[in-house]
UniProtKB/TrEMBL annotation:
InterPro entries according to UniProt: AraC_XylS_family_regulators, Homeodomain-like_sf, HTH_AraC, HTH_AraC-typ_CS, Tscrpt_reg_AraC-type_HTH
Membrane-spanning segments: none
Signal sequence, renumbered to the chain: none
SMART domains xrefs: HTH_ARAC
Keyword annotations from UniProtKB, A to Z: DNA-binding, Transcription, Transcription regulation
Record-annotated HTH araC/xylS-type domain positions: 211-310
Coiled-coil annotated spans: none
Superkingdom classification of source: Bacteria
Gene Ontology MF terms in the entry: DNA-binding transcription factor activity; sequence-specific DNA binding
Protein name listed in UniProt: AraC-like DNA-binding protein
PROSITE patterns in UniProt: HTH_ARAC_FAMILY_1 (PS00041), HTH_ARAC_FAMILY_2 (PS01124)
Pfam family, one: HTH_18
């Protein structure tokens, strides 16, 4: 992960550092702050593989462009962006287009563009043109694609990209698999999310949705009332669909929830604090202490009391 913010460099050098960071990690762009005296930015970039970058950028109000003189860098990959506020973008010198917050834009870097951003959080993914076109030929029909947030597959694509930013996979194999999912989801929305387009990427769709479901479970892990129905409602799918995703992964929703809560409890016990075992169990989302003790022993081959006692001995 690479990061840069206005706190890292002197005011006189901020634009130079900004231009260099963006050019190295995403594309050659030129920025002009709406107010140079109060211009702030905070950027991050994670390299999923040598072809793909995922990142975020938080800007004060700014004007930006990729003019023709900067296109001498020869880049022709696609920039996928999602903003948290409405903004305007002009492609190839044409009249500006209004883009709503949450919409996806996909623009080829070989195309001149200009944009006006209010104070915004920008989410960006750099996608290799040839790799995307191989599974989404329609992308080459035009240099700019505007995909409304309500389009079929759009929320899954943006959600999965957010997940990669928040919890980047470790290791080459994990990054490769995540990258394949990301390209498949991008292809789905570019191709129009028809059944024919979805068929080649059905595996990636399921895997991406399962990762989002797991992340949602972990966010609400300590809620004792958490159910597959509640998770399904938040994801806009049916409980049975979620159950099938876990079955295809060799597990069940209940097993994942139970094991995640056990992992949380054992971490708390291993700290060797003064909190009662019953409180730790309830804080992890278990509503039945006898059930907690039983499944804990089945999972770890020991009891919560023994884990806590060992942790206390280490602290002495």
């Amino acid at each position: 992960m690479q990061r840069l913010s206005t706190n890292d460099v002197p005011p006189r050098d901020r634009l130079a550092y900004l231009h260099d960071f963006v050019a190295r990690h995403v594309a050659g762009l030129r920025f002009r702050p709406a107010d140079a005296d109060s211009f702030d930015f905070d950027l991050s970039a994670y390299f999923l593989d040598h072809e793909t970058t995922v990142g975020t950028a938080c800007y004060s109000a700014v004007l930006g462009e990729r003019p023709r003189d900067l296109m001498a860098d020869g880049r022709q990959d696609y920039l996928m962006t999602i903003h948290t506020t409405d903004y305007e973008v002009a492609i190839a010198g044409k009249a500006p287009l209004s883009i709503r917050a949450g919409d996806i834009t996909l623009v080829n870097e070989a195309t001149a563009m200009a944009f006006a951003l209010p104070n915004t959080l920008l989410k960006v993914v750099s996608l290799n043109e040839a790799r995307l076109a191989a599974i989404a030929p329609r992308v080459r029909m035009q240099p700019f694609h505007h995909i409304p947030a309500q389009a079929v597959g759009a929320s899954l694509l943006t959600g999965y990209a957010d997940l990669l930013r928040a919890a980047a996979p470790d290791g080459v194999a994990g990054r490769t698999l995540a990258g394949n999912h990301l390209y498949d989801l991008a292809a789905l929305v570019v191709q129009g999310a028809t059944d024919a387009a979805a068929e080649p990427v059905r595996t990636s769709l399921g895997a991406a949705r399962l990762e989002l479901v797991k992340a949602e479970v972990l966010r609400h892990l300590t809620d004792p009332e958490l159910t597959v129905t509640a998770i399904a409602r938040s994801q806009g799918v049916t409980p049975r669909y979620i159950q099938r995703l876990f079955e295809q992964d060799g597990s069940t929703f209940s097993e994942f929830l139970r094991d995640a809560r056990l992992d949380l409890a054992v971490r708390s016990l291993d700290k060797g604090g003064t909190e009662a075992i019953s409180a730790i169990a309830f804080d992890a989302g278990f509503g039945d202490l006898s059930y907690f003790n039983r499944v804990f022993r089945q999972r770890f081959g020991t009891t919560p009391k023994e884990i806590k006692a060992a942790a206390l001995r280490r602290r002495q």
